[in-house]
């Protein structure tokens, strides 16, 4: 039993690492048999790992075919933005309360730097994927300030769910420029320590992003 659990854990960690590091392609069905062979394990521990990852909504399983990266649904988007809003709002309040500290000032500099990187990107290659990665780092930076590892871990897992949706959203004309303006507004309210305005701007920023993602979900063809 212990050996089986170790193999299951090995398979789970292996697949989750591939997913979190974007080493599995979206829309591609992967064979459980082939993955088991790659790991040198039997199908049973791999199957258990796959079921666990399916329950956590990292992947979707297609009987007799294999599995693929989880296809986002409307409920996933809504849930993710509810979690994001709750965590980011809380962290921004803590940042405002501690704004005069050295850590808070460093955080402000880092956030402003991310905005500059986004602006420079628009002026060069305009890659929506690179823009989305900087966007992720901007928002993650707000959460990292708190120093709460458990909250950061939860935040990263939810952000990962929608990363590729965000990449697609940034291909919409003007959305990258609009995002920069929204980020700048958040920073201005933060530096003025205007908590009410800050919460309003963050809610609006996340609401716009959520609605775009919901529209994209409706446009996306479904796997049969």
Automatic annotation (TrEMBL):
A Pfam family it matches? FCD
| GO MF terms, alphabetically ordered | DNA binding; DNA-binding transcription factor activity
Fetch the Gene3D superfamilies from UniProt: GntR ligand-binding domain-like, Winged helix-like DNA-binding domain superfamily/Winged helix DNA-binding domain
Any coiled-coil ranges, and where? none
- Domain HTH gntR-type: start-end pairs: 5-72
PROSITE patterns this protein is in?
A: HTH_GNTR
Which residues belong to the signal peptide in this entry?
none
List the SUPFAM superfamilies hit by this protein, alphabetically.
GntR ligand-binding domain-like, Winged helix' DNA-binding domain
Keywords on record? DNA-binding, Transcription, Transcription regulation
Q: What protein name applies here?
A: Transcriptional regulator, GntR family
Q: Which organism is it from?
A: Anaerostipes caccae (strain DSM 14662 / CCUG 47493 / JCM 13470 / NCIMB 13811 / L1-92)
